[in-house]
Amino acid sequence: MKNIIKFGVPIILLLGIYISGIYLFDSPSDVVVGLYNGDKKEIDTSNTLAIMYENDNGEYVESTSSNWLGDGYTFNATLSKCKNGSKIYYDSATKKVMVEANTNDRCYVYFDILNFRNTCIKDNSNTFACKIATTYTTDGENGLYYHDGVGTYTNASQEAGDNSYRYSGADPNNYVCFGSDAGTCPDEYLYRIIGVFDEDNDGEYNVKLIKADYTTSAMLGTDGRDYYDLYQYAGFDFLFYKGKMDTSTIVAYRWNYDTSVSSYGSNNWATSELNKTNLNTNYLNYLGSSWSSMIEDSTWHLGGMTSSSNTAKSFYNGERNNAGYGSNPTTYGPENASGNSTKIGLMYPSDYGYAAYPDAWKISLNSYASPNVWLYIGLYEWTITPYSSASDDVFHLNDNGILGGFNAYSGFSVRPVFYLKSNISYVEGNGTKTSPYRIN
Questions:
Q1: Which value, to the nearest 10 degrees, does the dihedral of the CA atoms of residues 435, 418, 162, 309 take?
Q2: What pLDDT, on a 0 to 100 scale, did the predictor assign at position 241?
């Protein structure tokens, strides 16, 4: 149970004796109701109606504002009560409070903050999503930023505004062991948390993971038209590589080598065999049924952009709101995947952009050279986002951390990305590489 804290000057609304009266309040200061006796109005000043709102610590505080609380709060019908039995009603559509009173009364109207972290605290939830969200205290603490579009730090106005919790900075403690129960997690089973997201806006938050290092042919297979070869034969070196793999085992894949669209391939993710064969068949088999069953079938946003010269926020909006090239689908999910799994995808350019410290969020992603961003590990790597101005171009990361674009038939490295189901629970670990989070 949360504590009720009262301070400052209370909001006063006077409720008098008015048999079967219903009083409608558009704001806390516009109505004073008293005892009516013929034409005479007598006011009982001993009773009040106060707005109690939830703060970031999960406590209820009596508001000192002269207006109802704005967006970001939801009415708590359970706690909102009057001492002497008057009834309180709230119209969420019009944001108006009604009090049905038949006696002098003192009433409290409670509002809960619309904040996943606070809900986790209130419910004492042990889900993994709640574990991560509750490590957030203030923006930047523990490497997490709450993207509600509000903040007082540099470039807070550049947040995604999707109420996600995202890790940013050089090396936050966001490691997860996924795919192994060994006491010491093997490097090949280390993943990192991009953040905690409610992508479907249904109140269900999912932890989004990316493989901490690149992939081998044992993980993704060599079948399908989109297998290229070993990365070392793709024409690139390992000068900037920051991982720990045997570089001779890292493989490269084409994004989509569908030459019926262009001799340079296609940027239609729905027809990509990297998507359908290597990621959503072979990789799931590599993980095994027990682990792959923890992954949510997700909808992937395929909104295109015309240039890498855009900020993280511009990419975020474009990924979700822009069209792709021609008739290419703008989403790929369970509803339009023709029976194929949609568990595994790739990072968005916006994921990469927001993984940097906030002082970089106003910089175009094609200027992120060797950035202080934890998602960067130094090889040419695909994202999931296509160009909208051509049929065969896709966004990728260069080995120096710059976002660029290239033909879909090119061979680049791959790191699988996926969302865990919302009911996956936290077991142990603190997110460091030596003590990664363990989940059930």
A1: 100
A2: 97
